[in-house]
């Protein structure tokens, strides 16, 4: 897959989008996520409006979680999204 150099220039930064969310939104991430990092997630949490809720970091999870990440990580991620 090829992405043109000007693609990302055309996107709004996440900081701006977090202020525009006009419906309930849940964001979860893992402690192994490199983009955004856990520190970035704390920063985003400070910027977000009242429609955005952040969940605790999921241990062992990276940027995305799939079945091959193992049942423990998948279960913890689903619990962070839907049970908290």
Helices, strands, pairings?
Elements: H1 14-20, E1 25-27, H2 38-47, E2 52-54, H3 71-82
Parallel strand pairs: 1-2
Describe this structure in words.
There is one protein chain. This protein is mostly helical and 84 residues long. It has helices at 14-20, 38-47, 71-82; strands at 25-27, 52-54. A two-stranded parallel ribbon has the order 1-2. α2 (38-47) links the parallel β1 and β2.
Short description:
It contains 3 helices and 2 strands, in the order H-E-H-E-H. It has helices spanning 14-20, 38-47, 71-82, and strands at residues 25-27, 52-54.
Question: Which key terms come to mind for this protein?
Answer:
globular, mainly alpha, 2 strands, two-stranded parallel sheet, 84 residues, 3 helices
Radius of gyration: 14 Å
- Helix share, percent: 25-40%
Euclidean distance between termini CA atoms: 37 Å
Structural class: mainly alpha
Trace the largest sheet across and list its strands: 1-2
Whole-number mean pLDDT: 86
- Following the backbone from N to C, one meets helices and strands in this order, namely HEHEH
Largest sheet: 2 strands, parallel
Low-confidence stretches: none
Strand segment count: 2
- Content of β-strand: 5-15%
Number of helices: 3
Identify the overall geometry. Answer: globular
């Amino acid at each position: 897959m090829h992405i043109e150099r000007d693609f990302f220039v055309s996107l709004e930064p996440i900081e701006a989008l977090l202020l525009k969310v006009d419906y309930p939104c849940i964001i979860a991430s893992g402690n192994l996520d490199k983009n955004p990092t856990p520190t970035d997630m704390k920063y985003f949490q400070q910027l977000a409006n009242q429609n955005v809720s952040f969940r605790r970091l999921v241990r062992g999870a990276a940027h995305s979680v799939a079945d091959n990440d193992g049942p423990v990580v998948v279960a913890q991620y689903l619990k962070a999204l839907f049970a908290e």
